[in-house]
Amino acid sequence: MKYLLVLVLGLVLSVATLQYAHATSDITISSPTMVDTTGHEISSYSVGQEIGIQSVLANHGTTNQKFSYLVQVMDGNDVTDYFGATSASMLGNQSFTATQVWIPKEPGTYTIQVYVWDSLASAIPLTDVIEKQITVQS
After folding, report:
1. C-alpha–C-alpha distance, residues 43 and 61, integer Å
2. Could you tell me if 63 and 89 are in contact, meaning their C-beta atoms sit under 8 angstroms apart?
3. What does the angle CA 101 – CA 105 – CA 106 come to, to the nearest 5 degrees?
4. Is 22 exposed, middle or buried (0-12, 13-18, 19+ CB in 10 A)?
5. What tens digit of pLDDT does each residue of 80-134 get?
6. Per-residue three-class SS string for the chain
7. Domain 25-137 class?
8. Cross-strand bridge partners of residue 71
9. Cβ neighbourhood burial of 138 (10 Å; 0-12, 13-18, 19+)
10. pLDDT(15) > 90
11. Is residue 79 within 8 Å of residue 105, measured between CB atoms?
12. Quick check: 51 and 34 in contact, CB under 8 A?
């Protein structure tokens, strides 16, 4: 009977953790767009090029919302090549265009992950992670 109780508690904790990890908020984020230094969309990428990773965040709620926009770039071996964040706040029913600039040092295929937390300190997810793959040429 003791083992059954521990197992049931373990399952409850696991389910609670999974539910918490899924973001539910009034914030949405667009799929990332790659832009040049002037903000124009680009579709080819090379080593040493400044690549802006840009998303539009929207607050569909009616109250002010603090947030951190996070960008992580992973190389073909799932090693983090770049991590950057921007923190700000939005009024209710407001949108915000956020950009982080990454400069690839090596050619290859990279996975770009963008997501929004309430802050860097508490790391509560406000959106799910959105991924996009790009190939960088030499």
Report:
1. 33
2. no
3. 130
4. exposed
5. 999 999 999 999 999 999 999 999 999 999 999 999 999 999 999 999 999 999 9
6. CHHHHHHHHHHHHHHHHHHHHCCCCCEEECCCEEECCCCCECCCEECCCCEEEEEEEEECCCCCEEEEEEEEEECCCCCEEEEEEEEEEECCCCEEEEEEEECCCCCEEEEEEEEEECCCCCCCECCCCEEEEEEEEC
7. mainly beta
8. 84, 114
9. exposed
10. no
11. no
12. yes
The residues spanned by each domain of the chain are 25-137
Residues paired with 48 in a beta bridge? none
Token digits of residue 59: 């607050």
Which two structure tokens, joined as six digits, stand for 87? Answer: 């923190």
Q: Decide which of 78 and 8 is more confident.
A: 78
pLDDT tens digits for range 23-77: 668 999 999 999 999 999 999 999 999 999 999 999 999 999 999 999 999 999 9
Identity of residue 107: P
Q: Is the pLDDT of residue 5 over 90?
A: no
Q: What is the reported pTM?
A: 0.81
